[in-house]
Amino acid sequence: MNNIDWSKLGFSYIKTNTMVCSRYKEGRWSPVESCTDDRITLDSLSASLHYGVECFEGLKAFYGKDGKIRIFRPEENARRLIRSAAYLGIEAPSEEMFLGMVLRAVSENKDFIPPYGSRASLYIRPLLIGVGPQLGVKPSSETFFSVLVNPVGAYAGGIDDPARAVIAREYDRAAPHGSGSYKVGGNYAASLYAGMQAGKAGYQAVLYLDPKEHKYIDEFSSSNFFAVKGNTYITPYSETILPSITNKSLCQLAEYLGMKVERRAIPTEELASFDETGECGTAVVITPVSVIEDKPSIQAAPTVVYSYKNAGAPGTKSRKLYDKITGIQYGEEPDIFGWCTVY
Hints:
By secondary structure, this protein is an alpha+beta fold. About 20% of the residues lie in helices and about 30% in strands. The strands form two sheets. Strands 1, 2, 3, 4, 5, 6, 7, 8 and 18 form a nine-stranded antiparallel sheet that branches. The longest helix is centred in the middle third of the chain and has 16 residues. The protein starts with 18 loop residues before the first strand and ends with a strand.
């Protein structure tokens, strides 16, 4: 057993029992192993170190009201990892192998799953990296796949702690026809500098515009954007946005709850007409955004400030969607879509 204070969990590293791993070499995967050491050994000329040949996933496991463990939509993560790996030209585990390793990692570390009632979870990080030594800029013929876990609380803010966001017109997170819709590390590296500048200026989130015209909402640094207008759930459509599994789930829930769902281009001017806005993703679930400031640069004075009702608290629709999705994850609501792997 561990001595973690579940009430004080953040989003920082905690040593767990094992990570589960396998290596692809010479056309086959090695037997899956459980390693008690979180460190890995790889060649100094590995493509992941020099050329960013790596992709990853993020999902969660929960202890439910009934005492059972629930993993939220792991099949979707498996498919997204396979898609990212194909973009990088590297071998990915099959969906079956992915799911088996996730289940094994959760089982071997189940004493690190926060107890029901803590509103915390076990974050699961599947990681796929190119490890073969090479000098040329090309896909790696050898890959290393691991599944690590870490107990976590809120990533940033949370449903009851709305964020202030800034539109960073001087920076782009992704390029047109580039890697923006794939879960690769380079996309996150591209957001770090703007995020640091925004933090110094007192913002909790950076909202990026489409990189081609800078006219339409794209996404936040590590989460999707959504808005509520009347009884409509609106989220951007763009080829440079990562397809969020949480956002996909919220769209389905919104329709189930009788809301209209629109996935389309959102011009920045439309921000003035929304009732609620927020960011959504595995780590944050939903963090409401109470203020969005549009600026030519992060350090400049805002040209437009968008403020939303219920500032200081989540909007009514955001709260309803949050309660529904987390209720499914914790076994408090019927899993009407069959999303959870339960054991």
